[in-house]
Amino acid sequence: MSETERVTEAEAIGTRLAELARHDRKVNRELVKALGDSGLFEPVFAADGVTAADLCATRQGLARSNTAAETAFALQGLGGTPIHLAGTESARADWVPSLRAGDVIAAFALTEPGAGSDAAALATVAERDGDGFRITGEKAYISNAPEADVYTVFASSEPGSGSRGVTAFVVPGDAEGLSGEPIDLIAPHPIGRLRFDGVFAPASSVLGEVNQGFGVAMQTLDLFRPSVGAFALGMAEAALRLAVDHARKREAFGRPIGEFQGVSHQLADVRTAIAASEHLVYTAAHAHDAGEGEALTGLAAMAKLHATETAQKAVDVAIQVLGARGLESNSLLAHLYLEVRAPRIYEGTSEIQRNIIARELLRGRI
Ligand SMILES: Cc1cc2nc3c(=O)[nH]c(=O)nc-3n(C[C@H](O)[C@H](O)[C@H](O)COP(=O)(O)OP(=O)(O)OC[C@H]3O[C@@H](n4cnc5c(N)ncnc54)[C@H](O)[C@@H]3O)c2cc1C
Q1: Are residue 206 and residue 219 in the same domain, yes or no?
Q2: Which residue among 349, 356, 357 has the greatest number of ligand 1 atoms within 8 angstroms of its CB, and so is best to mutate?
Q3: What φ, ψ does residue 176 adopt, rounded to 5°?
Q4: Structurally, how many domains does the chain consist of?
Q5: 236 and 337: one domain?
Q6: Can you give the CATH number for the domain in which 294 is found?
Q7: What pLDDT, in 10s, does the model give residues 316-353?
Q8: What residue numbers bound the domain in which 312 lies?
Q9: What angle do CA 160, 161, 165 make, to 5 degrees?
């Protein structure tokens, strides 16, 4: 299937599942199951792995029509990918089929109260216990927590060694010693805090190698970072569509407002920025899929930065063009206004993306 076909297919699935969308802060199991039934998780958990381009096209299409479905899709992929890519045979057999079917909910637990942008500064520890580990510490701002059925957890197994002493684990949501509570964000996003009180993690739950867990996190984020840009791209397109439609129909001073240059130039600037975002997102995705490791880091950072900042601008312009109507509660635009903010923060803030771009530029890689 071509990228364009995948975008169109995902947009149509999002439209079909619109009735199931809720914009509260709880995990929507019915929606995840429906996504599983639609087959959208098949490529994500395919034996030979998903391409970044396919992931981007699915996220762009879903974001155009149904951000709740988009978020549910992305979080299942983010939480499940480390298990799929780096899990032991038994861990994969335990979780991947039900993740693919949408029967269980996954989450990716890296961030801590004291470790956000500085993701290697983990205070959660994994201490040896027999041939397994005991995990103790706290995770914060974890999407799908505390309701998820399975967590990919990153913990310091060699304190003081930074990113070289992190191990990744798969931990069931009902593990003894694991508790948590929701965090109420203004974004319509299921998210929460987790506490690990000596949670036992057997050797079979280690993802990848002991002390190599940061690599598992980065491998997952390298795959997903361009697709955060694709999510933003789809939202920007949805906002622009509303604004253009309104600019054609709404009349003021005896003419459609789209005939006023003050309005039309704002739309022109957003359209141009969206085209640039689309180019950056798919350039990064193709670099990932071609194994162009050198350039990928910088390209993915540019894609995420540009697309998420553009989406914020696109939603703001759309609200301006719709006037008071753009601020009506429960409208698509009001929803996008709340939704569009968080992607500039998660999976690396805009400032961190700029740091990466600058570093890669000075190293001569982009
Ligand atoms: C909706 C949402 C969903 C999330 N889901 C998950 C999830 O599923 N799993 C997970 O593990 N985490 C998740 N997070 C957490 C997210 O990854 C972190 O919020 C993010 O990495 C930033 O960390 P922080 O919030 O602690 O900000 P901080 O790191 O404290 O940063 C605060 C400010 O300082 C700036 N800053 C920090 N360091 C630098 C620097 N070196 N140079 C310039 N500026 C700097 C930042 O850009 C930011 O503006 C989620 C967050 C949100 C909002």
Answers
A1: no
A2: 349
A3: -65, 135
A4: 3
A5: yes
A6: 1.20.140.10
A7: 999 999 999 999 998 899 999 999 999 999 999 999 99
A8: 215-362
A9: 120
Residues 244 and 320 in one domain: yes
The CATH number of whichever domain residue 186 belongs to comes to: 2.40.110.10
To the question of pTM greater than 0.90 for the whole model, the response is yes
Residue 287 has which token pair? 């670099």
Of 211, 232, 258, the residue at which a domain comes to its end is 211
What's the CA-to-centroid distance between 346 and ligand 1, angstroms? 6
Residue whose C-alpha is closest to residue 98's, from 173, 163, 164: 173
pLDDT, tens digit (0-9, with 9 covering 90-100), for 251-306: 999 999 999 999 999 999 999 999 999 999 999 999 999 998 889 999 999 999 99
Task: Encode 315-331 in three state secondary structure.
Answer: HHHHHHHHHHHHHCCCC
Burial of 18 (0-12, 13-18, 19+ CB in 10 A): exposed
Q: Are residues 27 and 140 in the same domain?
A: no
The amino acid that residue 186 corresponds to is: I
Question: How high is the pLDDT of residue 226?
Answer: 96
- Taking Cα atoms as reference points, which of 79, 68, 66, 207 lies closest to residue 143? 79
What distance in Å separates the CA atoms of residue 363 and residue 293, rounded to the nearest whole number? Answer: 14
* Same-domain status, 145 and 279: no
Whole-number Å distance, alpha carbon 224 to ligand 1 midpoint, is 16
Pocket test for ligand 1, best of 141, 143, 352 (most atoms within 8 A of CB): 141
Name the closest-CA residue to atom 41, ligand 1: 352
DSSP state of 118: S
Question: Are 93 and 222 found together in one domain?
Answer: no
Of 60, 76, 101, the domain-final residue: 101
**Ligand 1 centroid, distance to 287 Cα (angstroms):** 25
- For residue 342 and ligand 1, the question of a CB distance below 6 A is answered with yes
Measured CA to CA, the distance from residue 315 to residue 333 in angstroms comes to 7
Q: Which residues pair with 252 in a beta bridge?
A: 255
